[in-house]
Every structure is written in structure tokens, then in C-alpha cells.
Amino acid sequence: MAIVAGDTLIIEGTAGRRVINGSIRVNGSKNDAVQAIAAALLFRDGLALANLPDIDDVEKMLALLQDLGARIERRGRRAVIAVPKRLSRLNLDRAIAEKIRASILLTGPVLARYGSVTFPHPGGCVIGERPIDFFLDGFSQMGAKVKARRGSHMVVAPSRGLRGATIFFKNQSVTATETFLLAAVLARGRTSLKNCALEPEIENLGRFLRRSGARISGLGTPTVIINGRGLLTARRPYQVLSDRIEAGSFAILGALLAKKLQITHCRSQHLDALLNLLMELGVGIKSYRGTIIISAPRSGLGAVKIKTHEYPGFPTDLQAPLAVLLTQASGASTILETIFEGRLNYAKTLISMGAKIKIFDPHRLVITGPAPLYGRPVTSPDLRAGLAYILAGLVAKGRTVVHNVHYIDRGYERIDERLRALGLALKRF
Ligand code: EPZ
């Protein structure tokens, strides 16, 4: 699957004119796809995946699985993953694993099925420390031995396999919830996971595992119970959910620049927090059967107070894109980022483009608008801040050059082509 070359985008700003009148299709969810790829290890005869997005994090996860010894057949947005009885190795390729946070999702299933796993501290965006104590503590609670080995972690299960345990997550963690949901399917006995993340992707995976033979209850609630019962058999391909963060990013684009923007193949019910907020701002929103229609208000946007929160609260992944919209709102808006301590790092760059932002501490800022933005060279520090810079460049006066577009390619497929199809002026170099 081609990943478009070129790490720089040149954007000609619209100076805030409502120039968009078109439709954009939402692709499969990055965060659903990466967990489903890890889940393939639980299936005796492998697993087919459908609606995979063509993004770098999916490529890297499939490469990690292939490096372990799985066989992967790709056909467009589908992949068929066959997993052998014995893997060729039980250590994750460090060069890849330390680049993406999602690599940690493989540790639970590899450990549970093959008895041992060695992995580096996972990578990912520079949005915060991203500890992994929940994983190491949880594996120990399931009977495994955890050792540090030359900058990696080596975890070995008891000879009879992992045993069920009651695990309480001090914070709601999406990847920790997913990793132990997967590990528990092959553990001996009952596992209770408490203070689980409630993201729809987790429920989508849990339901699929249950349909494939796993015994799971409590999906969609903070306490999920899994009774381990061995390898599963898939009766149909895993359908990757539509990406609610991509859909939300496009809704914010529409709120900035659209007469009418149709966002198709999405699930508005996964975006309540954002859509309610956009309505409060005065944005026109209609939604029906997998489509959301957004129209930017003719008069000014109102100011709001937002606090990011675990699902179903306002998603931290949409905080930076929303901040760009709030630079154009009339009045003072506040943002409280409650999940990551490094997720306001985009603000200084928006200020350099003309935004009126006061940063109080790593978790709180105030945006006063409307303030015109002016194009300039910027460098994307992470996936979602990178998308925010594209939005800022599109609403600005003049030209913006965005560097480090590879961060954006991690989570948004062919972003320049798809926005160009809306009549926006972006070129990749
Ligand atoms: C998932 O990260 C997503 N990544 C992130 O998406 C998303 O921003 C995040 O959930 C929040 O919604 C994937 O699903 C691959 P965490 P996750 O590091 O679950 C604490 C994007 O932009 N914690 O677990 O890995 C941690 O400090 C990416 O698409 C521990 O203390 O998030 C934080 O406060 C960025 N110890 C909270 O949990 C641990 O061992 C969640 O952080 C693990 C986590």
C-alpha cells in the first residue's frame, strides 16, 4: 500500500472565506485498526480485516506482526492475517515498535499465546510521558515475570500460561484496556478489568471477540469480565469502525470554511461531545444515516469552555484542531486538557500565526477571538497538532508551509489529495 512521499505541504490560505461546498468520505479508524491487527493473534485460523485505513501506523503494525512470523495478504483496504502455531521470534522489532504507541497492543496477545514477549518502551506522539506501568503491573498480576533487558522489557508467563486476575487501572487507558482484554481471552480463569476506557472501538472489538467464541461481559461499562477459554474462530472479517477523530477533524474544517460540507461513512453517535459543542458555537449541523452535514455560521462563532475527558467526553485528539476554530470565535474560550501534559504544544505556533492565546500551564489556555491568522512555515510536532496546522493554514491569509507531514500521515490517509478534492489549495513536496 503506497504511503505518499514528500514531507512538506504548501497551503494557500482562504482568509476565512466559506469556500468549501463538497463531500468527503471518512476512512477506517486508526485506533480500531491497530487493536484489531493485534487481536489476529488470538485466532486459530487467523483473521481477515476490512475497511483498513491506508496510514503509516497500520503499515507499521502489520510490519511488526510479519516480523514476528505472521503471514499477511493485502488487498486494498482488506488484509488477511495468518498466525503460525510457533512464531519465528517473540521480541518486537525495536526500530518499529519504539516509533508507535500501538506496538504495545501486541504484548498481551503474544505473551498470552506464546508465553513470552520482549518489547521496547513504545513510541508515539510527544504529547506526554506515556508510561507503561499499567502493562507491567497487570502482566505480573496475571502471574508473569517482568525483567528489564538492555532497554527493553522481557515478560515471561508461567509455564501453564497467564492466569486470570482482577486488574484496576488507576487511569482510564485505551491501550491498557485493549491489551488486557486480548490477553485475558487466552488466560486461565476469570479476569476482571476495572476502570476500563469506554471508547467505541473497544466495544467494537469486544463484541467481535464474543461473536468469535470469547466469554466477555460488561462491554461498554467500566468493568469488563473475561472468562479465558482459548483460541478463537472468526466467522466473518473484522469490520474496522469509521474513524471518529478523522470525522471530527473534518467537522471542524467545515465549521471554519464550509458553505456545506458532507462528511460521509461516519457515525455521528460517536461524536456527541464535539457536535454538541459545535452547535453551541452556532455551527449548522444535520446528520442522517452515516452522513453529517456541516455549514459554517454566516455570523460569528460564539466562545466556549472545553475540558477534554475520556470517552464519551470531549476527545483529547480533537483538542488542537478545535483550538484553531476557537481562534475565530468571538470572545474568550478556555481549554482544559486533562489527559496529557504535552498536548498544548501547538499553541505557540498558532500564536506565531496571529492567534491570541494565553497559556497558563501545560493543561490550561485561553483563546481570544476572532483573530486573523497569517500563513508562515510551521513544523508539526505530532499527529493531531499537525492536522491543526493544516486547518490554521487553510483559514489563514497567505501561504503556510507545514513540515513533518509524516506525523500527519500516521493518522490521516492522503490528507492533501482529499482536501484538494474539496477545492482547497494544498500541494505536497
Ligand atoms: C490512546 O492512547 C490513543 N492511542 C491516543 O491516540 C489517544 O489520544 C488516547 O488513547 C486518549 O484518548 C491509541 O489508541 C493507539 P495512554 P493510550 O498513554 O491509550 C495514563 C492519537 O492521536 N497511563 O494510555 O495509549 C497516561 O499517563 C493517539 O490517535 C499510565 O499512567 O493513552 C494517561 O494519563 C495519541 N500508565 C492515560 O493513562 C500506563 O501504563 C491515558 O494515556 C498507561 C497509561
Can you characterise this structure?
By secondary structure, the protein is of the alpha/beta class. The protein has helices at 30-39, 56-68, 94-97, 107-114, 133-141, 174-186, 200-211, 244-257, 272-281, 319-326, 347-352, 383-395, 405-409, 415-420; strands at residues 8-12, 20-25, 47-50, 71-75, 78-82, 116-120, 145-149, 152-156, 166-168, 190-194, 215-217, 223-227, 238-239, 258-264, 284-288, 291-295, 301-302, 305-307, 329-336, 356-361, 364-369, 377-379, 399-403, 425-428. Helix 1 runs parallel beside helix 2. The protein starts with 7 loop residues before the first strand and ends with a strand. It contains 14 helices and 24 strands. Strands 17, 18, 19, 20 and 21 form a five-stranded mixed β-sheet that branches. Strands 22-23-1-24 form a four-stranded mixed β-sheet. Helices cover 31% and strands 26% of the residues. The protein is elongated, with a radius of gyration of 22 Å. Residues 30-31, 34, 101-102, 125, 130-135, 171, 173-176, 316-317, 339, 383-384, 411 line the site of ligand EPZ.
Q: Which sheet architecture does the biggest sheet show?
A: 5 strands, mixed
What overall geometry do the principal axes of the alpha carbons give?
elongated
The total of helices stands at: 14
Percent of sequence in beta strands:
25-35%
Mean pLDDT: 96
Rg over C-alpha atoms, rounded to the nearest angstrom: 22 Å
Quantity of strands, as a count = 24
**Hetero groups bound?**
ligand EPZ
Straight-line N-to-C gap: 20 Å
Class derived from helix and strand content? alpha/beta
